[in-house]
Design a protein that fits this description.
205 residues, alpha+beta, 5-stranded mixed beta sheet, 10 strands, 25% strand, globular
Length: 205
């Protein structure tokens, strides 16, 4: 990881060389590679906030599970179904996590991000995989997130992902997934969006 990369967890912002750079989701949103969030009903803003908080909590539970530390914490009983789904995925796919939730920056391409999880997947021939977890219905545009995470992983820890897995973890303990065998084109499209996003960020201060 570049020595001058800083992640501001409070503001969820990435900096390289003292300059703010785009995050992955931010780049997708600013350039239109990610569709706008559809209506959550009458309480749109509060429901979006809840969905974000739920996603953050589920990600943390899965990270703790990867580290074998869930027994050290009081977990939200309302979210345990998502953890059950994650454990079921790991069992059925033979997924061995090698790391998760590590902020990373790319000094050449000038963006930052936090890969969800990465490791080896027995079910796809023992290939190296980057895994993106969602608690919502998967969207075709989500492929750009795993593509961007794969770029960060290769640069920062020399982990070359051969495949990408999008996971929808469900409250009932089940999951759905989409396997991407080739991330080449999504990587190119994402990298084309980064300088545009950075330009917009710099322009708007």
């Amino acid at each position: 990881m570049p020595d001058d990369y800083i992640f501001d967890a409070r503001l969820h912002r990435h900096y390289i060389g003292g300059r703010r750079v785009t995050g992955i989701t931010e780049a997708l949103r600013l350039t239109g590679l990610k569709k706008q969030i559809q209506s959550f009903g009458m309480n749109h803003a509060s429901n979006i906030e809840y969905a974000g908080q739920r996603g953050t909590a589920v990600h943390k539970m899965c990270e703790l599970d990867n580290q074998g530390q869930t027994h050290l914490y009081d977990l939200d009983a309302n979210l345990l179904g998502y953890l059950t789904a994650w454990r079921l995925f790991k069992k059925e796919f033979g997924f061995t996590p090698l790391g998760s939730e590590k902020p990373m920056g790319h000094p050449i391409y000038q963006f930052g991000g936090i890969p969800d999880s990465w490791g080896i997947v027995d079910k796809v021939g023992g290939k190296r995989a980057v895994v993106e977890m969602k608690t919502r219905v998967l969207d075709p545009d989500d492929v750009f997130q795993i593509a961007a995470q794969a770029i960060l992983l290769e640069h920062n820890i020399q982990f070359s992902a051969e495949v990408g897995l999008l996971m929808q973890l469900k409250a009932d303990g089940s999951y759905s997934h989409v396997l991407h065998q080739n991330l080449s084109m999504p990587k190119k499209l994402f990298l084309s969006a980064v300088p545009i996003a950075n330009h917009i960020i710099a322009r708007e201060g």
